[in-house]
Amino acid sequence: MYLNKAFLYGNLTRDPEIRALPSGQQVASFSVATNRTFKNKEGQKQDAVEYHNVVAFGRLADLIGQYMKKGRPIFVEGRIQTRSWEKDGEKKYRTEIVVENFQFGPSAVGGGGGGDDSPAPSKGGNSSSNSGLGKDDDIAYPAEEISPDDIPF
Question: Worst-scoring range by mean pLDDT, 57-61, 74-78, 110-114?
Fold first, then answer.
């Protein structure tokens, strides 16, 4: 079995760029910055930033283009894809994450994260989890207890 899956949680480095394909389908292109903290050989704390090119199509592109702005956090689930093309006789390559699912990150109180402070709708796809919930009382837990016998595996 083969697996090509990428999970990113980071901040947008620029506003999403929305275009339309000749078929009329929407495409959103943006980049996400992720941070990693580690200790070097001397024991000093170091930070490293990675920048990831991300592309979304269709309804996902519409939602991202409408609600996401530079600096806002986002969780992206997708696959890694490398495209190639020729320009002026030179072969060019671009590796990007193609969005299959995403969630909006928490919105900043006071408007510091860009966009409005109202809760944005959840992501596209087949999951029904809410994004941006910061309080446990916003989550609807089942009333009945779950028995280990109820679990199918």
Answer: 110-114
Question: Which burial class, exposed, middle or buried, applies to 18 when counting CB atoms under 10 A from its CB (0-12, 13-18, 19+)?
Answer: middle
Return the pLDDT at 69.
Answer: 93
Residue 33 binned pLDDT confidence (cut-offs 50, 70, 90):
very high
How confident is the model at residue 132, as a pLDDT? 45
58 and 16 in contact (C-beta within 8 Å)? no
Measured distance CA(17)–CA(29) in Å, rounded: 5
Give the range of the structural domain holding residue 119, as residue numbers without chain letter: 6-150
Rg over CA atoms, the chain: 19
Cβ–Cβ < 8 Å for 10, 35: yes
Q: Flag whether 1 is in a domain.
A: no
Is residue 77 within 8 A of residue 7, CB to CB? The reply is yes
CATH number at residue 131: 2.40.50.140
